[in-house]
Amino acid sequence: MTDWQDVVLTPASNIRDAMRTLDETALRIAIVCDENDKLVGTVTDGDIRRGLLKNSDMQDSVSAVMNQSPRTVTRLILVNSA
Questions:
Q1: Residues of the chain above pLDDT 90, percent
Q2: Which of 46, 67, 49 shows the shortest CA–CA distance to 58?
């Protein structure tokens, strides 16, 4: 099983780093965090594909292709359905 910390990238990571992370983990998503561990975006293989089609380069920053407005959950409430 993959630990979520295995999919954390920094804005300085490049697209090749993101592809490597996605290939090596089973979560199918990478998260991009700043130096304070604040979420700044997410990256999927679809984001990378769209970026490459728009002429991004493998050495470009992952920031060029990441989703800068990912949906997040701030609080999860479990309800007993019984």
A1: 73
A2: 49
